[in-house]
Amino acid sequence: MSGAWQVTGGLNIPRQSAAATLLRNGQVLVAGGFGNQSFLQSAELYDPAAGGWTLTDSMHSVRWEAATTLIPNGNVLVAGGSTGGSLLGIRGAELYDPTNRSWTVTGSMINERCAFTVTLLPNGKVLAAGGFGTNGALATAELYDPATGVWTPTGSLQTPRGSHTATLLPNGRVLVAGGTDFTAAGGTPIDPTRSSAEIYDPATGIWTPTAAMSQPRQVHTATLLPNGKVLVAGGVSYFGGVFPTSAELYDPVAGKWSPTFPLVSGRQDHTAALLPNGQVLVAGGFNNTDTGPTAELFDPASVVATPALLTQPTKLQTGAFQFTFRNTPGLSFSVLSTANLVAPARDWINLGAAAEVSPGHYQFTEAIAASPQRFYRVRSP
Q1: pLDDT tens-digit profile of 257-273?
Q2: Is 193 exposed, middle or buried (CB count within 10 Å of its CB: 0-12, 13-18, 19+)?
Q3: Which residues pair with residue 350 across a beta bridge?
Q4: Domains, in order of start, for the chain
């Protein structure tokens, strides 16, 4: 299974580490985060019909790395987060009413949390799991009752983790994937980013392990697709590392992960929401240059490999020419070359196969160019 991404309208305010929720009217609420060199309490709404964003009322508190979910009455719960530059969680929570576009304060959590997850369970309660408190990652979890506004404890994760994702599966259980912790050894930061995943059973309050992702990742996104699979996209794999454009799918029936078509832009601390048309909106975040208002759409119904768009060939110090392109993971491509662009396809020289350097990312290097002017194309058998 593969999919395709396309660019859509940008946010009014660039933001990363924001909280995003799909409302009953099909719009998407994005609140808080960090952007324009400040921590935010502002919020805005995305209208998929118009493909644009409008500002709405701001939250009572500045917060980034908060968690959010839609509760049964149609309001939005936003909980925890951090108010400053360090990963020190807060306990406060508030509710957004889409009807009058206003916020009200609700009961505070038992534990301080930021970079954690909240998940609406089939029984109407909300599961809060993991995150960072005041001394590293948490394994604790708790339940919020919208009827009373009160939080109560439940079973703890097997592995402490923050900056992970949590997804309600069709069987009513919750998949938690990835995340990280931070400790100090001799003053040196350690960042054990996780590829592991585990599942929460609301009937027992117990967590059990499942298959690990293909690579460690944190501050990524996870979205349940209409076919019951879970799309995990982006994030960062290691402390101070590059932001992968890779994406993968979890199959709850098989309990396994598989790669899918990668993102257009590598990004972390972004948001993702399933739209009524079955597409996934990915917005904002941080990429290799700066926080930006960019957004893109993933279409899980697109199963046909898209034409390969080659990057401008780069001449290496060795004199070789190298280019890259994106396409569905797991395919094979032949690279053709010619010095005469009008030459028929049968006369192009077959240089060999492109290498898949990471899921969905292909690269080819021509060690010795036959002439000063070269044209390249790729084809799939």
Answers
A1: 988 888 877 788 787 88
A2: buried
A3: 336
A4: 4-299 (2.120.10.80), 314-379 (no CATH)
